[in-house]
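S., here's the first fold you wanted:
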Amino acid sequence: MLKFKRKKEKPLLSPVQALRRKVIRLRIAFLSTLVVLGVSLFVLIFSNFNYLLFKTLIARNYTHTYTLDEMFLHHLGFVPSNHARYFDNLVIAIVTQQIRETGGDVYTYLYTPAQRIAMEERIRTRAAGAEFYEIVAGTVVLRLPNTAPLVQSFVFDNRAEIGAFDNLILDLRGNNGGELAVVQNIASLFLQTGDTIAFDETRWSLFSRERRARRRHSDFFDFDHIIILQDASTASSAEVLIAALTSHLDNVTTIGEQTFGKAVGQVTLPLRQGFAVRATVLNIQNPQGESIHNIGIAPHIEYKGDDMLSFAIDKLQGGNINER
């Protein structure tokens, strides 16, 4: 006869024993966290050991403080009472200036608190200029002054009304760009899901990516004709939008001038004391895998007159919009 071994039951713990066991587990978790934090702190200090020594030597012990005062005034616009507190900002300002002067990268620099506030206000003010209006029967003008999140909200909030027209004139003149994520979302209203919008190429391949159209809303644009107005100030992510639409849609015609030609992207990181650093971190390629940096995008129809809107409407109404 087979004998089955009964499963040994765990003894019940008293409330005091259960509490002790819980306390032991919490102590182990706490000590483990301390060890991880300690190791991380050691690695951080060790990897920055030379800089920390230099900072202490110069910011706290250097004798000729008038030299530091002049450097702070030149690069940051003020002389701090505590050199050490703002020393990192001074170093960043000097390095980014050297990058601009040596490498010609005018897009990498340090924002002082006042400059950062002014920059954010400029972006908001320009974004507030986004508008759409019916210019002739069946044709709507959509003007995007930049590609900030506020502009994206404007387009999405009004997409149903904008999409009700037969033809679109997308005015990107003077649009100096903004955020690539905004362009990706706006382009997705025009393109099919999966269409390539751009390629982001970074030094660390982990962050390189292909930006594709993705439709998250039931309302999307399906115009008979799309005319894009562009000029020499149309730049950066605005150029990405032009490249994406002209690459995938056969009903798009661009009118105007050669665009600026900026196919590099930046990230802006906030720092302590209200500062921020902006640095070029990626190269941008069009859906064909080509860069238009320092080249720009040529229009299908070149036109430099002040009456570009009237010229576009005449082309559209004359039925010869596709004659290039």
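And the second, which I think is the more interesting of the pair:
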Amino acid sequence: MKKNNSVIFKGGKSGIIVLLDERASFKDITTALREKTRSASGFFSGAQTSLVFKGKQLTEDEIVTLLEIIDEETNLSFTFVEDLTGPAVTEIAPPPLPDPSFEPKPADDTYFHKHSLRNGQAIIQNGSVVVLGDVNSGAEIIATGNVLVFGALRGMVHAGSGGNEKAFICAMTLQPTQVLRIANEKVIFPGEGFGDNKIDPGFAFLKDGDIHVRFVADI
């Protein structure tokens, strides 16, 4: 049987680099990733590291799919995830997704999620998102509008994903440990995040091409 080298793992100074073959189809990449993470699950068990994707250009949906496979097949814990595959193509109205943890919603609406988001869960919304709970590390929200979290925000959030530079991110406890994106800009946080686990309301907004983070206590 021909060996599938669509995915190659390499160790880097800051964590694990996942090299993706630019010529491979996304189906081949997901197959290879599942095979390799499953066979090396003992190696990854209990590890805590950063994860960097390089090679084939991916959409945000495809990145989340790869993260889900890694989460399913290993006990790897991400301190943060970085996409260096090139500018992602954001599809805000994606085709039906096989994983029920994804929740595409009707366009131009505000979606109220009345539970916390766990690792591996995601919300994709044409409009704004309000979460009545926590957004835990490994969870993701992609919205064309604003994102408000009435709880702790520790996961990955992309507000204004259609290019809306006026979108903002607000949380009762702003402790991002991964990535915040607004429009076409992003900022990556170290694994420990902000706030030392204390309640620290804050918000993030885009100004002059940079993402700014402000806390209520500092205003």
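Why I say that: The longest strand covers residues 48-55. Residues 26-39 form the longest helix (14 residues).

Talk tomorrow,
H.
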